[in-house]
Amino acid sequence: MKLSVIGTGYLGATHAACMAELGFEVVGLDIDPAKVEALSRGELPFHEPGLPELLIKHVASGRLRFTTSYAEVGAWADVHFIGVGTPQRPGESAADMRYVDAAAVSLAEHISRDALIVGKSTVPVGTAERLATLIADTRDAAGLPGAVELAWNPEFLREGFAVKDTLTPDRLVVGVTSAQAEDVLREVYAQALAAGTPWIATDYATAELVKVAANAFLATKISFINAFSEITEQVGGDIGTLADAIGHDPRIGRRFLNAGVGFGGGCLPKDIRALQARVSELGLDRTMRFLAEMDDINLRRRDRVVDLAVQVLSHTLHGAPRRAPNGGAGHTPDPVSVQVLNGARIAILGVTFKPDSDDVRDSPALDVANRLYTAGADVAVYDPKGNANAAARFPRLDYVNTCEAALQGADLVILLTEWDEFKALDPTHVATLMARPTIIDARNVLDPSTWRQAGFTHAALGHRYID
Ligand code: UDX
Fold this sequence. Notes:
This protein is an alpha/beta fold. 47% of the residues lie in helices and 13% in strands. It has helices spanning 10-21, 33-40, 51-61, 70-76, 98-110, 127-142, 162-167, 179-188, 190-194, 204-235, 239-247, 268-281, 289-316, 335-341, 364-374, 387-393, 403-407, 420-423, 427-433, 448-453; strands at residues 2-6, 25-29, 64-67, 79-82, 115-119, 148-152, 172-175, 199-202, 345-349, 378-382, 398-399, 412-415, 438-441, 457-460. The strands form three sheets. Strands 3-2-1-4-5-6 form a six-stranded parallel β-sheet, with helices on both faces. A six-stranded parallel β-sheet has the order 11-10-9-12-13-14. A two-stranded parallel sheet has the order 7-8. Helix 10 (204-235) crosses helix 12. The site of uridine-5'-diphosphate-xylopyranose has 20 residues, from helix 10. Uridine-5'-diphosphate-xylopyranose is lined by residues 155-159, 215, 218, 222, 256-258, 260, 262-265, 267-268, 353-354.
C-alpha cells in the first residue's frame, strides 16, 4: 500500500516518517518548497526526539520522499492522510479551516483512481461530512474516474513523544462510512492492532469529537489543579501534595495534575476555544461555557508569575517589606510594578510551551518573558531548543546560548519550562552567578528546602510566598 501525507509540520512529518518505519512507501507533500527541500535532504525543520533518525533512515532507504506536487501523489498513492494545521483564526476563537479545505480540494482534483482520503487534523465537528460532499462535488464537476472515500482518524500524539505515540498509540479511532474504508485503515495500522491497541471504528462526528473531548478534558484537569493553586497561594498548603493525594484515587489519576504556569502549545488552547466557537454555532452556547473559565484560570497563571516577580523584587531589590499575595498584576502592569521591574535583571529559563520541544506557540513562558520585558525588566532568555523560534516572535528579548549566561548578574531567575537541564541545576553554583540568589519556580519542579538552604529567596506557583 502506498501512502501520502499532506502537510509536513509536527503532525504530518511525524506520521510520514513513522509510516515509512512501519514498512510503507510514503510521499510527504507540502506547499512550502523550502520545507520539502530540507526534508528531502533528511533535515527536520523542528525539534522532535527520535524523529531525525527515522527521517534520515527512510530518506536513505528510498521508502520516504517529499514533493510539492498534488498531481504526483494523486496518481501514486492509495491512501492520503491530511495532516495540515487548523490554527486559531486571528482575533477569533474558531479554527481556521482554509488549509484543510484546500488540501481536500487539491486531492479531489488530482486523484484519478480509487483512493481513500484520511483526515487527521483536529477539526470542528461536522467537518468530515462537509468535506465528503465537497470532495464528491469537486470530482463530479471534473468528471474524474475512480472512487474516492473519506475517513477521519484523529491524532493524539504529544510533542516530545510524537514518534512513540504514533508507532505505539494508546488507542486508534476511525470515523468511517464503509467497511472497505475501515479495512484499509486496519491494514495501515496492522502492527499496532496486532499488539493489542484498542480500535474504535465509529461515525465521522464521534471521531471528530473524541479528539476535542480528550483535549478539553486534559485542559480542564490542568486548570482544575491550577485553580486550587490560587487557594494554596492564599492560605498556605502544598499543591503538589494535594495533587498526589487526590491522584491516588484511580478515578482521578495523578497525570496532568501538575500545577504551574499552565498549558500552551499548538493544541490545547486553540482546541478549547474552537470547541466553544463550534458549539455556539450549533446554538449550544451554554454547553461548553466552563471551558471559558478553564481558559481564564490558565491565563491568570501568567499574571501570577508577573505579580510574584514584582513582589519578590520589591523586597530583594528595593528593600520594601514583603507584600502579601494580591490577585495578580493583570495584563497591563500597574505603575508600581513598572517601577519595581524597571532595570531589574531577570533570567528566564525556558520559553517553549513544554520541555523536549522547540515549539513556542501560545507558550506561557514566552508570554511571561515578553510581559516582564514590556514592563521594563532587563530579560535574559535561555532555552535549550526554543531560542530561535522565540526570537522570531519577540526579537527584542536578550537571547543567550547558555544557562550560565542568562544567570550572570541576574536579580531573579524564573524557571518557566521544566527542561531536565534546569531541574538538575546546582543552587550553590547558580548563587555564585547571580547578583541576588532569588528564584521563582513556575513549574514546581525544584525542592524548595534545597534552594533555601543554598541561600535563595524561593517562591513557587501554588505555594504561599510568605510562610
Ligand atoms: C496535547 C495532547 O496531550 C495530545 O494528546 C494532543 O494530540 C495534542 O495536544 P501537546 O500539545 O504536545 O499534546 O502537550 P501536552 O503534553 O498535552 O501539554 C500541554 C500543555 O499542558 C503544556 O504547556 C504543559 O506544560 C501543560 N501541562 C501538562 C501542565 O501545565 N500540567 C500538566 O500536568 C500537564
